[in-house]
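Q: How would the C-alpha cells look for this protein?
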Amino acid sequence: MKKLILLFTAILFISCAGNSNYEKNLATAQKLFELHGEEKMDEQLALISKDIKIYTPMYGNNEPLGYDAYVSILKGYHDGFEDIKYNAQAWLPGVDTLSLKPDGSVRTYGTWTGKNSMTGKEINLSGYWYFNFDAEGKVIQQGDFFDYGGMMQAVGPKNPVLVTLKVKPGKKQAMIDLLNTPDGLQTTRNYDGSLSLEAFFNDQTYTYYIYGDWASYEQYQKYLDWRFSEDQSKMAQQVMALCVGGEKGLIPIFPNTDYSSFSSK
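A: Here is the predicted structure in C-alpha cell form.
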C-alpha cells in the first residue's frame, strides 16, 4: 500500500510539473471562445500566433491552413451567424503524443448554439476542439472536429445553380475526362464562394448536369466572368467545343428562388 501511495504521488507530481502552463492556456482558450461569441475579432487575433496552423472539419481540406485563412474563417462565422455561444461539457489538459506527458495544451468538447444571420435557422452543433500553444502562450495550432457540411446544409443559405451541358453524340467520355482534369470542376469547387459541387450524366438525354451551391449569385457571376474571359486553361471554350450548338449547349440556370429542403418524419 505504501508503494502504491508513493507511486500515485510521483505520477501526480510529474503530471502537475509537466502541466505548469495548463491553467494559463486554459484561460486563453476559454477567452478565445468567449470573444468569438462576442464577435471581437481583433481581441481574438491577439491570442493567436501569426504562425498558427489550423485543421478544419471541411471535407477535402487535409493540409493545415495558416493565419490568413484563420482570419477569413473567423470573419465568415462572425458575418454568417449571430448570438453564438459555446456551452462546454468539458475542458481537458492535453498530452504530448510521444511522451504522453501533459504539455499545456487544451482540449474541449461541447455545443455551439446560435442562428444563421440570413436564414434565421438555429444551430445546435456538438464538436471537439484542441489548442496547442507556443512559448508566448499564444495558440499555435488548432483542430476542429464537427460536421461542418451538415451544419451548413441545415441552417445555411442556398443559392443553387444548375448547369446543363448538351453533349455531342459520342463525346460523353471526352466531356467527363475533360471536366475531371485539375482545371475542370475541381477548379470550380475551389473558387471563392463555391460551397458544394456535384455532377452526373444522363444517358437518355445525353446531358451532363452540374449542380452547385454558392455563397451568393454575385460570386457565381464573378466565377463565370473569370471562366469565359480570364481563365488561362480556356476550359469553358473546351467544354463548349464538345456541346451541341457550342455556346448554346452550355446553359447555366440561375438565379433561383424559393429553395426548400425536406427531411423524413
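DSSP finds nine helices and nine strands in the chain.

The beta strands are 48-55, 81-95, 102-116, 122-133, 139-145, 160-166, 194-202, 207-214, 250-253.

Upvote if useful.
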